[in-house]
Sequence to fold (301 residues):
Amino acid sequence: TQKFVSGLSKTSSSLVGAVGSVLNRSKIDEEMYEELEDILIGADVGVNTTLEIVDRLRREVKERKVKEPAELQPILSEILADLLRGEDGQQGMNIQAEGLTVILFVGVNGVGKTTTIGKLANKYKREGKKVILAAGDTFRAGAIEQLEVWGERVGVDVIRHQAGSDPAAVVFDGIQAARARGADILLCDTAGRLQNKVNLMEELKKVHRVVKREIPDAPHETLLVLDATTGQNALQQAKIFSEAVDVSGIVLTKLDGTAKGGIVIAIRHELGLPVKWVGLGEKVDDLQEFDPDQYIHALFQ
Ligand code: GDP
Fold:
């Protein structure tokens, strides 16, 4: 929890400071709502989501006959928590109690896919699970070697082919190796070059098909990795990837490097996808399972 709070400190200090000044106003009026809108949009909550939040706040103020701005904070927290939990309430990871769990990671270059895979491999290994990595980003120079460095650091096997080879073949081999070695979890990296979007999306679909042919209810998770510091761009990427593959959740990296952590709310609300993990730094332990209530708490502590 402490790590979560400090990782979010840039967001919380700017957002809370700003929201605080709104809540310190002398009365609830149009100007106050407008200021709140500006603050939320500035924190990357997104225009649509911001308008919805402020609309709901107006309704609650009316219904509950709230008079003082100081009374607004718990109401605002409630609204944000509600948006973050989403309609399906789905949040945790789909890890098989028995047999192999296959997790695909997709996302554009540089967002932190490889780092996240390393961090997650470490987490699951510490829980006593046998983890294998598949180096499915055969396109980006150095991606395979970088994954191998993580494999060595964490102490898990990495299945790799040569640079430029077919990612679906790597993932296929990953599944065979995982079965042969009795692994519990296979984490698969994939390419993230957006320069050739059509090819990339076809490649991801093929990886998906190959996994499904081997294990009908897999991949058990397809996690889209997004960089929180890219703001509304991240939403755009999410739309592109969601069209190609069935994304089951989001990993939001570099939340430590931005004061605009409101992007979490926009992602959940505008994409309907749960944020499952957040990256709060470059080190192996800097990955946290995302908990909506903890996030709100960190924002308004
Ligand atoms: P990939 O191209 O998507 O595989 O991205 P990488 O895993 O190589 O990460 C790109 C850069 O982002 C590296 O310098 C990582 O150390 C850094 N990075 C990844 N996750 C985080 C995070 O949560 N916080 C911070 N501050 N840096 C991160």
